[in-house]
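**User:**
Make up any protein.

**Assistant:**
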Amino acid sequence: LALDVFVAEIRRHLGGMLVELGGCDAIVFTGGIGENGVNIRSGVCADLQGLGIELDAKVNADKGSAERCLSTPNSKTQIWIIPTNEELIVARQTKHALEG
């Protein structure tokens, strides 16, 4: 139930942003859930073909969190997994703070 609510909230916010922006070029899934949540990604993108958002179910089902495009060739909106690297971000910010 919690995951269903989570997906519904993402879809609600996505819909609001699509209306406000007049569409989008890409949807990016990142972080642990975005990179590894096959069911989350498919739930978020379910039945959005009318909005030009088409997830390739076979590519989405592939395991691994490597950067890759998940949208079908016909999708007007690209759907991507982009891995995060929090450790690198913290290291860069620490270096910047130490350098003044």
